[in-house]
């Protein structure tokens, strides 16, 4: 048995950054990681990071072996790939919008920061269950797989940053905790890092292809990583029995740019694509990263939002420990801050657009792009979680272009209005637990008005 101020389960982006920041604040931090230390960061993902997340968290920008290539826009294609719309908004004074990275090198850098800050790191630590005292989390039980021994560690606060497995969250019964994530709110993915016969161009653009022949309920991505290297994969909506690897292989076979490509690394995985958890906190515990559903529900990207969640949570953990109140109420400020002023409000709003996109088939999406029913400016606003706001003249023009799909146009407008309402709801997230049930009912009603389950 060991005693600590803070235990962090999982050394991914959220856990490693949170552990680093907490140790800098003077907390006694234990970071538990299931893999061996030298494999931290070796995870299947798209490997894209937006600049603003690193900037907000005070993390130096990627360089050297870690850096894939700077990214200045995302081009979104319909199935025919004859037209596209772009999400591109370069911040003045910054070198780019973001980067693709080598996920292993990036993960090792974050872990190094945690170690340098004074966090104790134990790898080969397979966390099995929480330790509880009258329902409050007071630590964890884990197996040291290097010695095949069972161990326990106690702390004033525990952080579940264990990723999609949510090794603690799914084992705690608490009125605030959502223990499971529905299969239809998960993305099931397969991806490979490929060496192509020629460089993928343009080198500073990511491609997203909406084509339900290959990615039903999701999309295909092509993210350049510099030179002839590209991260290529697809995601499908969970719960339908799709086989992502087979669909991926069909996509490659039907696209000549991948002919004779060499596979550097491949694998599959899953991620939550849905609204945030109702609460990121309970008695003695906080959830961040995939465990907290801190993932963009449109593109499934979670590296930056996970880091930001860990960054925002840290001072609330320290304040709760110093105040001697590590109950859900004592940690509640993290819910308020992340939802009102950070990425929570955006995740909640974009979840409504995710639901809409999953209803739109190939023919309808082709129509939307080719007839400029959705434009680049719309996507910029939507990516900020604000919905699609149209002027009177713009509405008239789109109405004329969309007459053949009037039902779809009205559905887009209805969901866009709801996105703006959702954004406002999360910007007024309740400051107290007492006001939370009434606020939650408003959010649930907004879902129901669109015919969706929250």
Question: In words, what does this structure look like?
Answer:
The chain is α/β, with parallel strands linked by helices and 454 residues long. The chain has three domains: 2-47 and 102-179 and 274-331, FAD/NAD(P)-binding domain, CATH 3.50.50.60; 183-270, 2-Layer Sandwich (D-Amino Acid Oxidase, Chain A, domain 2); 348-449, no CATH class. It contains 13 helices and 18 strands. Strands 1, 2, 8, 9, 10, 11, 17 and 18 form an eight-stranded mixed β-sheet that branches. The chain has a seven-stranded mixed β-sheet with strand order 6-5-13-14-15-12-16. A three-stranded antiparallel β-sheet has the order 3-7-4. Helix 5 (303-323) packs antiparallel against helix 7. The chain is globular. The mean pLDDT is 93.
- In percent, how much strand structure appears in the residues? 15-25%
Cα-to-Cα separation, first versus last residue: 41 Å
Q: Compute the gyration radius: what is it?
A: 22 Å
CATH architecture of the largest domain: 3-Layer(bba) Sandwich
Number of domains: 3
- Helix content range of the residues, please? 25-40%
């Amino acid at each position: 048995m060991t005693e600590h101020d803070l235990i962090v389960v999982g050394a991914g982006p959220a856990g490693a950054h949170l552990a680093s920041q907490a140790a800098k604040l003077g907390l006694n931090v234990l970071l538990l990681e299931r893999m061996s230390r030298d494999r931290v960061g070796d995870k299947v993902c798209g490997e894209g990071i937006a600049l603003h997340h690193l900037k907000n968290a005070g993390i130096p920008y990627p360089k050297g072996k870690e850096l894939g290539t700077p990214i200045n826009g995302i081009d979104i294609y319909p199935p025919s790939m004859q037209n596209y719309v772009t999400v591109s908004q370069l911040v003045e004074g910054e070198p780019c919008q973001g980067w693709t990275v080598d996920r292993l090198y990036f993960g090792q850098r974050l872990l190094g920061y945690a170690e340098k800050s004074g966090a104790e790191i134990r790898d080969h630590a397979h966390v099995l269950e929480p330790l509880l005292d009258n329902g409050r989390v007071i630590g964890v039980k884990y197996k040291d797989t290097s010695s095949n021994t069972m161990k326990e560690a106690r702390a004033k606060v525990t952080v579940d940053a264990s990723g999609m497995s949510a090794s603690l969250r799914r084992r705690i019964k608490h009125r605030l905790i959502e223990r499971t994530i529905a299969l239809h709110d998960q993305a099931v993915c397969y991806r490979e890092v490929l060496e192509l016969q020629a460089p993928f161009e343009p080198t500073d653009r990511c491609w997203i292809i909406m084509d339900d022949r290959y990615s039903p309920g999701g999309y295909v991505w092509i993210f350049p990583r510099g030179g002839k290297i590209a991260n290529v994969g697809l995601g499908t909506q969970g719960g339908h029995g799709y086989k992502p690897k087979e669909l991926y292989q069909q996509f490659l076979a039907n696209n000549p740019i991948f002919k004779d490509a060499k596979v550097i690394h491949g694998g599959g995985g899953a991620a939550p694509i849905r609204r945030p958890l109702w609460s990121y906190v309970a008695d003695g515990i906080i959830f961040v990263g995939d465990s907290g559903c801190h993932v963009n529900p449109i593109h499934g990207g979670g590296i930056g939002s996970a880091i930001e969640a860990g960054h925002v949570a840290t001072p609330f953990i320290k304040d709760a420990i110093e105040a001697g109140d590590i109950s859900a109420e004592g940690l509640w400020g993290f819910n308020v801050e992340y939802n009102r002023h950070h990425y929570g409000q955006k995740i909640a709003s974009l979840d409504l657009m995710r639901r809409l996109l999953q209803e739109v088939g190939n023919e309808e999406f082709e129509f939307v792009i080719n007839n400029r029913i959705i434009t680049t400016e719309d996507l910029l606003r939507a990516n900020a979680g604000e919905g699609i706001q149209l002027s009177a003249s713009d509405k008239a023009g789109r109405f004329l272009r969309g007459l053949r799909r009037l039902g779809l146009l009205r559905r887009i407008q209805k969901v866009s209005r709801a996105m703006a309402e959702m954004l406002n709801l999360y910007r007024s997230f309740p400051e107290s637990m007492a006001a939370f049930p009434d606020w939650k009912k408003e959010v649930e009603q907004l879902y129901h008005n669109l015919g969706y389950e929250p």
